[in-house]
Amino acid sequence: MARKRVMTGDRPTGKLHLGHYVGTLETRLRLQEQYECFFAVADYHILTTRLDNLGEIEENIRDIVLDYLAVGIDPQKSTIYLQSLVPDVAELHLLLSMLISTTRLERVPTLKDMIRGLKIESPSYGLLGYPVLQAADILMARADLVPVGIDQVPHVEVAREIARRFNGLFGRVFPEPEALTTDTPLLVGLDGRAKMSKSLGNAIFLSESAEAVEKKVMRMYTDPRRIHPNIPGTVEGNPVFIYHDLFNKNKEEVDALKHRYRMGTIGDVEVKRRLARALNGFLEPIRVRRAEFARQPGLVERIIKEGSEKAEREAEATMQAVRQAMKMNYFRD
Ligand code: ATP
Ligand code: MG
Questions:
Q1: Which domains does the chain have, with CATH numbers?
Q2: Which of 82, 1, 71, 70 lies closest to 38, judged by CA?
Q3: How far apart are the first and last CA of the chain?
């Protein structure tokens, strides 16, 4: 039996952060050992929300690829590619856009969030089609599994519906892709807001220096009622302890800190200092590897070029099957 296919991606809006790590990168590392993985840097998707500063995209693409390599995504095992270098995705997007209604797309919760967050008066045709473009990425790779954070699950649902619709109308070409979330499908931000996000400015980046991590942690949101270290504090839902649970390998230390926090026998400063230390322990090997990769001239370019060529070959095969199924392979050799 053919190996299962995995497809997911990230928009090159900036460097990757801890939310990406626990939300999807960790799963990708596991999946690449077993399955055929496609990881896209989704530059077309940027255009759905911003047309200013497009000049930054190139640098952001480079950063994302370096972040991938730094955490251990291995281009020997996984295909890392650039969405716009696989233009078949745009053609598939056009065909798939006929298979879903605008009212259905208007119901996608992330659309409402984006419209609110970015203060958009009326979404562009392209923004409404964000999940359709994503469906094109996923179906292009004929993926079975899509490792994503919780916010992306409704998009994968759109991709499933489109796949089902296509298969029903034209015969089975696409597997119905399944979203795969982790135990932490939504990592809280440094400011206590629900989501750590590049655009909310509440993230710790995987490539951040030890000093910057320390500074950010010391300013983190914590139990606001604790104006004095001898006031018993709340551990549950406290971002400082959520991060301790996720990134501090020393479980005994974490348990002891929680106990003292609840009793009101420890200051926030100490809990945060220990968190900064734990986070830096986690991030240091990533930083070291990233710096090594960044020193190799032409490496990122080569990975993108080779990966995109491989993805393009897959895309061509998919488009052939699509045209055949739709009886649209006329006037081609
Ligand atoms: P932006 O703020 O520009 O939208 P982002 O930080 O939300 O950026 P995306 O590129 O939109 O990042 O997301 C890439 C992937 O990472 C998606 O699968 C998304 O669900 C996941 N992800 C992003 N932030 C988090 C988070 N805080 N917790 C869990 N998963 C996350
Ligand atoms: Mg996002």
A1: 5-187+297-325 (3.40.50.620), 210-291 (1.10.240.10)
A2: 82
A3: 31
Specify the ligand 1 atom closest to the Cα of 196.
Answer: 27
Q: Average pLDDT per run of 10 along the chain, which is 333 residues long? A: 92 96 97 98 95 94 98 98 98 98 97 90 96 98 98 98 98 98 97 91 97 98 92 96 98 98 96 98 98 98 98 98 96 85
Q: Coil, strand or helix: which one is 326?
A: coil
136 within ligand 1 shell (Cβ under 6 A): no
Name the region of 208 (left: φ>0; alpha: ψ -120 to 50; beta: rest): beta
Report whether residue 272 contacts ligand 1, using a CB cutoff of 6 Å.
Answer: no
What pLDDT is recorded for position 73? 98
**What pLDDT does 1 receive?**
67
User: How large is the angle between the packed helices 109-117 and 130-140, nearest 10 degrees?
Assistant: 130
Q: What separation in Å is there between the alpha carbon of 105 and the centre of ligand 1?
A: 20
| Nearest-10 Cα torsion for 249, 253, 259, 265 | -130
Q: What is the pTM of this model?
A: 0.96
Six token digits for residue 284: 């240091």
10, β-bridge pairs:
41
CA of residue 109 to ligand 1 center, whole Å:
15
Cβ(239) to ligand 1 under 6 A?
no
Q: Please tell me what DSSP assigns to residue 180.
A: E
User: What is the number of other CB atoms lying within 10 angstroms of the CB of residue 259?
Assistant: 12
Spatial distance between the Cα atoms of 285 and 80, rounded to a whole number of angstroms: 21
Q: For residues 148 and 156, is the Cβ–Cβ distance under 8 A?
A: yes
Name the H helices within the chain. 18-20, 26-31, 43-46, 57-71, 88-96, 102-106, 109-117, 125-128, 130-140, 153-170, 210-218, 239-247, 251-263, 268-294, 299-325
